[in-house]
Write a structure and sequence with these properties.
Helix content: 25-40%
CATH topology of the largest domain: TIM Barrel
Strand order of the largest sheet: 5-6-7-8-9-10-11
Structural class: alpha/beta
CATH architecture of the largest domain: Alpha-Beta Barrel
CATH superfamily of the largest domain: Enolase-like C-terminal domain
Bound molecules: 2-succinylbenzoate, magnesium ion
């Protein structure tokens, strides 16, 4: 399979409600989509990078630059496969989200050319996955309770609350009291705490949280290990896990006992599967994280989350939780689950007219 042309599309998708984390608030998602045209079939990729480099160092304009100037040129004239992409792009350091977008497009084209679903290629074993919802920091506890109840009424199987210093124990206590002991509840700090906040975080222990996600800085594995020794609540890492190697180190150090797997953050679906396999071999629970994906990235993530080791519900919500309109037909909840697409490749189709309505910029690349 050889690349003939690539379209890099920058789009803006307005969010249904602003999403606030400890990093700040966003009211729209800027996304980079990649349409890969090959001699066999065309494929779509979605880059997880956000507008600003706050969650990770990658950001949309940087990803576009490295894809155009450094990643695509390495593919020119070569015979491509999903596995070969990793090797071909490995000499470029970092830029995992940019690499993952290309790998995803190659997977899609590869599957379409062979009439194989991405789910079957990656090794999915379940027809549907439990849906979880990630709730940003709202204006008040009353507003939080209202949105939690709304999502539970829609059927979500797990609730995740964003927290930060000053917005932690009180909202968690209020939500736990309202929803009762049986609903799966977890929190995500997006690295907003310091090792000195240990006592504040032990105050979350009475609320039976499934996990506490990324309390400390991305590079502080030892700090997380020390904190894990003090808390009853299991620690899950997100930002810190950038590869199967870092996942292995974090687990061996005791920095976490659960892993959030995001394909973009770790450089692609194959690396994501390696972390899944590692976790299964150690009996560690994993779940699939999200980056407010469009229907394209969502299709791929839902397929990944259908691998057998994804034992906890992911940050996988219906499209309507994020967007009024999406670039594909929306993913809907079916009895609290999202159904894994079974068609060739990602198994979803892009609505060109709607895509055009979101367009900010369009660039093209061709092998010289
Ligand atoms: O920390 O998991 C995170 C969104 C953007 C960046 C980082 C995170 C998130 C989410 C939302 O929590 C996940 C989703 O529903 O897509
Ligand atoms: Mg997170």
């Amino acid at each position: 399979m050889r690349v003939e042309r690539v379209e890099l599309l920058t789009i803006d998708l307005p969010l249904v409600t602003p999403f606030r984390t400890s990093y700040g608030s966003v009211d729209r998602e800027r996304k980079l989509l990649l349409r890969l045209l090959t001699d066999e079939a065309a494929g779509w990729g979605e880059c997880a990078a956000m507008l600003e480099p706050l969650y990770t160092s990658e950001y949309v304009d940087g990803a576009r630059d490295v894809i155009m100037g450094h990643l695509l040129p390495r593919l020119a004239g070569l015979d491509l496969s999903p596995e070969r992409i990793e090797t071909l792009l490995a000499p470029v350091r970092g830029h995992r989200m940019a690499k993952a977008a290309i790998e995803m497009a190659v997977f899609d084209a590869w599957g379409r050319a062979r009439d194989a679903s991405f789910a079957s290629l990656i090794g999915a074993t379940r027809p549907a996955v439990a849906a979880g919802v990630s709730i940003g920091i709202p204006a008040s506890i009353a507003a939080l309770l209202e949105s939690v109840e709304g999502y539970l009424a829609q059927g979500y199987r797990r609730v995740k609350l964003k927290i930060e210093p000053g917005w932690d124990v009180a909202p968690v206590a209020a939500v736990r009291e309202r929803i009762g002991a049986d609903v799966l509840l977890q929190v995500d700090a997006n690295a907003a705490y310091s090792p000195a906040d240990g006592e504040r975080l032990t105050a979350l222990d009475p609320f039976d949280l499934l996990l506490l996600e990324q309390p400390l800085a991305e590079d502080d594995l030892l700090g997380h290990a020390a904190l894990a020794g003090r808390l009853r609540t299991p620690i899950c890492l997100d930002e810190s896990i950038t590869s199967a190697v870092t996942a292995d180190h974090a687990l061996r150090l005791g920095a976490c006992s659960v892993v959030n797997i995001k394909p973009g953050r770790v450089g692609g679906y194959l690396e994501a599967r390696r972390i899944h396999d590692l976790a299964v071999s150690r009996g560690v629970p994993v779940w699939c994280g999200g980056m407010l994906e469009t229907g394209l990235g969502r299709a791929a993530n839902v397929a990944l989350a259908a691998l057998p080791g994804f034992s906890l519900p992911g940050d996988l919500s219906a499209s309507g939780r994020y967007y009024e309109a999406d670039v594909t037909a929306p993913f809907e909840l079916v009895d609290g689950h999202l159904v894994v697409p079974t068609g060739p490749g990602l198994g979803v189709e892009v609505d060109e007219e709607r895509l055009a309505s979101f367009m900010v910029e369009r660039e093209e690349w061709r092998p010289a």
